[in-house]
Amino acid sequence: MDKETVQPNSWVALRLPNETYRVLQVVPNTTISLGKYGSFPTNLIINRPYHFTYEVQDKREGETFARLRVVPAKELNADDLADTSAEATEPAEGDDVVAAADGEELTLVDESGKVLIRSNREIIDDSARQTLKPEEIEELKRKGASAGKELIAKLLLSHTAIDQKTAYSLAKYKLLKTKKYIRRFTVLPLDVPMLAQWLLEDRDASKILEMRQEMMALVGCWADVHYGGAATEDVGASQGGRWLVVDDTGGLLVASLAERMDILHPKLEEESTEDPAAPETTETNAPTDEMDQDQPQTTEATDPEQKQEKKRSKRSDFNVPYVNRNTLTVIHGQTQPNLALLRYFNYDAANANPSPPYHPLDTNLMDISWLQLLSPDEDDAYNNKPPEATPEEIATWKTNRRGNYHRKRRRWARIRHVVDTTRAGGFSGLAVASTMDPISIVRSTVPLLAGGAPISIYSPTIEPLTQLADCFSVARRAAWVSSPPPEVESKTAEELERWEGSEEFPINPTLLLGVTIQTSRARRWQVLPGRTHPFMMGRGGADGFLFTAWRAVPVEGKIEARGRFKRRKLDT
């Protein structure tokens, strides 16, 4: 039910009548302002289903807020379901039907000769035919009568050339005025596709490398990202379902992959069992009955016992919270990864010490810098272990010093765990969306992948990917096998995987197979007789390209194959 209704402090997307979106957080006991469309309290949409269309009503006498009305589907689709005069009735048998000749336009009149609908052959100046003055329109907008419907009706009635419009022109005119003045909005869940569309069309698309929804989906598909299984405490068990990620889109790629792995959204069932304050919060926000009134007494009685138990079961500073399956490891080049977009899914990437209830990404998302991956000995956070202190000495410290001591020890333990497990390799795939040179990324990450692991690399332009694909071409691989470089003849297979390359062979060309480059773009088309073409209103920008391949483990030694075949008798 939590995924079907608007929850407190969750992020939603509001679709306005002008087909734009407003992304905001639903904070209880606050007011949401939609500009010219009005404002309303957030509590009116909390615990209400998604995809409902609301109408901001006029403020009642004595009230300081506007109420909302759920617009029924019949009212929303009234114009689409209404029968026009041309389509509602079919001519009966024997009736005379007047048809227009080629190039001739007709005017519809009734029996008395009154003009009902004219052709749009004459150009009509809407501004000259509208008798309502701008001052009167602004006054009606300030009054906000009937959520803008009264203003639209007066605009239609005051138009002197309304009878000269065709049915299509009249419907178009009404639609334009409705989008401009009607005070309605639709509440939509903020999922990854909606967030990507909002960032691409209404925000700076370059911050997400102009990655469209179809390319984002292809990256996850070709990297074979899926639910990797539940975590186990067995150290010797197979640690499958671990993916490497290089994300320069602010966390959009990580959010897309985490949604595939079912670790993007918090589990409310786990929150209710782990957080002891959850029943108390539910009581204050929801109506109570006789059974609920006894609950606070039980909670108060058990609170001291829970506090004592919490004090006794203190977690060690070196107890790492990460799991060994169904994880994402983000490689970044800064002090901290740029995962700002994950805040729209109630995850704070900057909080190193989260408190319960935990988000799934707190235990399934790890980050490591390029320095820690390639040269961990040069990283101070990895090498410098915090000094030890006795419990008696810690007891004499102040609260701030004691907190800093435990925080540094926990941070050092997390970094050691992430660096050691990442450098051990065995990852199930690699997904990249970065502005870095893809050759350098592949050279450093391919040795960490398991055999047969898929690779998908997104780039807004094709040139970096063609250079990478050329490193694994058939001709370059044949040249490597026939006459390998002199500097690799005495190297082992493990050393060849981590070979830094040369000018002729930037990477070992035998590490990847099935190298391809592809692109895909969904386009909307207008399909009319003789006028079929793509819509001209689509945004431009980069199409985006995708590099895909599979990790190959080169065989050691020489391969020999021998077969025994039976001779077939040839029919003469």
Question: Quaternary status of these chains?
Answer: single chain
Low-pLDDT segments: 94-106, 121-125, 270-302
Please state the overall shape, judged from the principal axes of the Cα atoms: flat
The count of β-strands is 18
Mean pLDDT: 80
Radius of gyration: 33 Å
- How far the N terminus sits from the C terminus, by CA atoms, comes to 77 Å
Class from secondary-structure proportions: alpha+beta
Q: How many helix segments?
A: 22
Write out the strand line-up for the largest beta sheet, numbering strands in chain order: 12-11-10-13-14-18-15
Helix content: 25-40%
Give the DSSP E fraction (strand runs of 2 or more residues): 5-15%
Summarize the biggest pleated sheet: 7 strands, mixed
Task: Offer a few descriptive terms.
single chain; 572 residues; alpha+beta; 7-stranded mixed β-sheet; 5-stranded antiparallel β-sheet; 22 helices; nucleus; TRM6; tRNA (adenine(58)-N(1))-methyltransferase non-catalytic subunit TRM6
Task: Describe the overall structure.
The chain is α+β, with helices and mostly antiparallel strands and 572 residues long. Among the domains are: 1-80 and 105-190, no CATH class; 429-524 and 535-551, no CATH class. It has 22 helices and 18 strands. The chain is flat. 24% of the residues are buried. Belongs to the TRM6/GCD10 family. GO terms for molecular function: methyltransferase activity. This is tRNA (adenine(58)-N(1))-methyltransferase non-catalytic subunit TRM6. It holds the Pfam family Gcd10p. It is found in: Nucleus.
